[in-house]
Amino acid sequence: MTYTTLLEEWEALLERRPTFREPLKAYREILVAWSRWSGERLAPLGWTAAECRERWRRGVPLLAETSPVVEPEALEDLLVPAMELLFAAGTDDEALRRFAQAWDRGEVTPAALLPAKGTLGSVTIRERLGLTSEALGFLACGGLRPILEDYFAGCRAHFSDGVWDLGVCPFCGAPAGFTDILESGGRRLACHLCGGAWIFPRLKCPHCGSVDSKDIVKFQAEEREEGYLIGACRNCHGYLKELDRRVRWNAGSALVEDWGSPHLDLVAHRAGYWRAVPTLIDLERGSRPGS
Ligand SMILES: [Zn+2]
Ligand SMILES: [Zn+2]
Description:
Elements lengths: L2 H14 L8 H11 L13 H9 L14 H18 L3 H12 L18 H7 L3 H19 L26 E4 L5 E4 L6 E4 L15 E4 L8 E6 L5 E6 L9 H6 L2 H9 L9 H6 L6
Parallel strand pairs: 1-6
Antiparallel strand pairs: 1-2, 2-3, 4-5, 5-6
Helix pairs in contact: 1-2, 2-4, 4-7
The chain binds zinc ion (ZN) (2 copies).
């Protein structure tokens, strides 16, 4: 999957949902920045299958025990559209300015954006700069994808179904961003931060791990669209949107479908649920309950 393909998918989605073209136009800039990324300046992770699987067996995402060496300038090109989008959302201006100044002084480095233990970005940096978790999470999503995707490119082949059963990405440790129901009926979670994907039990909450069937709820928007669902958990109130690819075989990638369905996020938010990986709606609506 190249980013040019993602851009094409994004355009195709907006053809289907033209009313989103204007409110979601900032996403396009992020995808354009990704399509311009050249990975030449990044050394990919060279771990063997045994080295990767040893971590997965322990339930440790690879990024917990290694870190890409990223030049700040390389990340900056990717971060600019996400920063602009945040400024345009207008919720966190002062904190964003502090972030930009600290970045320019070299006090905040690319490491501050990396996911860890199911959170996006460094909690220390977030608290020091007064950034919301949504804003820092959004910067991480907007800036890191091409970097992490290239970094893990050599390790993808080492992964196989059954070696990982957690709700966070086995590669980078970020929380899941989207659910795909596959042709086989299996459930695959997608990571927006690195492009990772892994099979996960249908009736288990990826956020809190609950397998109690009373906790798991599925619902749709009022205007039903076949194949699109919200899967939520009554125990932790986390949700993920899901797409049944058996009925939507020509849909776009997980990220495109996620970004392109804010109406479903609105439904989930109104029902009192939150998502771990922020989108535009989270920025505009402020913090999730309790954070
Ligand atoms: Zn990941
Ligand atoms: Zn849960």
